[in-house]
Structures are given as C-alpha cells and as structure tokens.
Amino acid sequence: MTAVSNKLHLISKMCLRSMSTSGKSDHSCKLLVLGGGAGGCSAAAKFVNKLGKGKVIILDPAEVHYYQPMFTLIGGGVKQLPESFRPMSNVLPKNAMWIKDSVAKILPNQNCVKTNSGLQISYEYLVVALGIELHFEKVKGLQEALTDPMSGVSSNYSPMYAERTFENLSRLKQGNAVFTLPNTPIKCAGAPIKACFISEHFIQKAGHRKNVNFFYRTSLPVFYSVKVYADELQKLADQRGINVATSHELIEVNHHNHEAKFLNIKEPQNVETIEFSMLHAVPPMFPPVVLAQSSPDLVDHTGYLRVNKATLRHDNFPNIFGIGDCTNLPTSKTAAAVAGQIGILYRNLANAMEGKDVSLKYDGYTACPLVTGYGSCIMAEFDYDLQPLETFSFIDQSKEHLSMYVMKK
Fold first, then answer.
1. Which end of the chain is more exposed for a tag (fewer CB within 10 A), N or C?
2. Catalytic, out of 188, 196, 326, 377
3. pTM for this one?
4. Which residues constitute the domain of residue 309?
C-alpha cells in the first residue's frame, strides 16, 4: 500500500496546484452540483458545455475520484488499486468551479447550501449527487476485523479493503469462504455475487477447491432481483457447489474465533454461525445524513432524496434534481443506472431552465455485468419493473459470455 499512499500524497499536491479552489467567501451560480462521483461529474460536464465558464459550481471534498466498478476486479486480482483512481481535478470539467468542501446544510427554501468551512453558496438550480455511505460499524465486530490485515475479512466496497480480498484469496487453502449482502439498499447488489463467483473460480484454478467450502448469505428474499438472471445464477451456484441462503443478515463478526453470525430474517429466533477462513463482508449502507438533517421535505421516510422516478425532479422543490445512489429511485444503484439517468436529467433540467415542460421519462434502466469467473459474465440489464431491457439482441444475455466479460474488464 506504500506506493498507493505515495500516489495519493502526490495527487493531493496536484489538486492544490491544478484547479482553483475557493477561499472563505460566498458564491453564487446558475447550477450547483453536490458531489463529484459519477453522477455529479456527468451533470457538471454537460451543463458547463451548455452554460459556459463560471456558471457551474461543484462541491466535493475528495482529492481523488474512484472508478468504483473496478473494485470487484481488484478483489479478484484482475486489476490493481492505482488503476481505479485519478485526481479529482483531472476528472471535473475545467470550466466549472470546484469548491473542495463538504455539505453542512442544504437550505432549499433559500436556494443555498452551507459548507463545513462556513461558506454559503447560492444557486438557481441544484443537482444532488451525494451518493450513499458505507457503515461498517453497524455490524458488531466488523470494523475491528477489518483493521486486522490477517483476520481473513475484507470488502470490495472500500478502496481501503478491496486489495485484501485478493490477499485473503491467495492465502486460502482450506476452510470456509463466506460472502454476504446486508439488509439495506446497497451500491450494485450484484457485486457481492461477483465477488463470490470470482473467488470460487480462483480457488478452483489454484487447485484447492475440494478443501474450500463456499457460502453466499444474502438478506434479500431472492438470490437476485431479476428472475431470469437469478435462475441462471442459482443454476451456476448449484453446479459449482456454492451454498446459497436467502433472508440471512450478517449481524456479528468475531475475527478472533473466525466466526460470522447471521440472523434468519424469516425466523428471527434462529441465528446461524459459520466458521470462516475468509469473509467478504458488504457493509450496511445509508443515504447521507445531511439530507434529512437539512430538511424533512428533502427526503422520503428512509432518508433518500425524494425525486419523481420518471423526471428526476424533486417532488417538493422544482429547481432541485437528483441523480444516482442518494435518490429514492426504485432501481439498482449502479454506474450504469447513472448513465441511463444523466440524459433524462440533462434534458429535463435544461428545459426547466428555459421555462419549458419537464416531461422526459426515465424507465429505470440499469445494468450489472455479473462476472461469474475469469472470462465469463452475465450482462444483466433491466428496468423499474425488473423486466429485462437488453442491448444485445443477438445473444442470450441470461447466459455466460466471454464477450460480456471483456466488455466489463
């Protein structure tokens, strides 16, 4: 990790040199974008081209931008962590102002945002793209286990721990490998499945498969939300000897005893304990707390930004739009979903700025390349109704294909 730390330090210096950040003064803009992830970067880039220099402000404290879909491949040893990030200053559009700060409060009735450093930014229009937050501490013992590099515990969901997945895999010669999915909405619900299948293939290729048992435990009532893909995944799991159980929530990790405890959601009196040699744990995830703390009118009952699922416009504030993981859109939280949303958001927000009807509709399109091993992938694409919405009509996308793996890679 030393090389990575040195690169992050260098990036920090580059950020300070290569892109102007603001001092302690107030700002105003035509469009304020909260968040520099996939959704925020995309929205800012499109509107800088439309509105011109000085009209768009991006608020994000991060020095680096991670391409998070690569984390699964890092965990499988296919990619290296330094390949997954770039300086934030290299990713954000140059003609936008980047304020390197965090959101302290959104004041939608006053059309302004306050930052942690005390700045106040006024806007005419606001795009909220704050993502979703990881909460490892919500599972008893998990954070402690992750601080011990020899615990056998990892998570592809954080750049701090993704490399450890492959380190643990490389040491695994016998015992139980356990993979989890929590009882909350998460980024890319297919990623835990990918981690399991890739790991199983690695152990198979390493010649240790007969000595390693694989367990997949998901809090969901189904293996995967879309039946046509779930059926194929279950068939593959059966063929490869992966023990799958639904409605099982990870509630405790004891890395000293190498035990993971799971609550049976349907039968809460039953708790399953599995001894592990390797545990890939996905943390519970929640919307940024600043949304609900700013105004109850901003969020739904779960704390996610409430937007119209078709237009992406806020239900209560017509000059606010949302994109990506922080919204209450009833679709899978993936980079592909953001790609499907950005065109609708751009045209609807542009129409709003011009006093036109906001009528274009997002159909919930999302995609998840379900990597099932080194060289195989099921390309899941679907809509709000969990019906396939596939791109490649000349192949059966519910089956494994090398071409889909190459596309993912």
1. N
2. 188
3. 0.91
4. 2-132+287-353
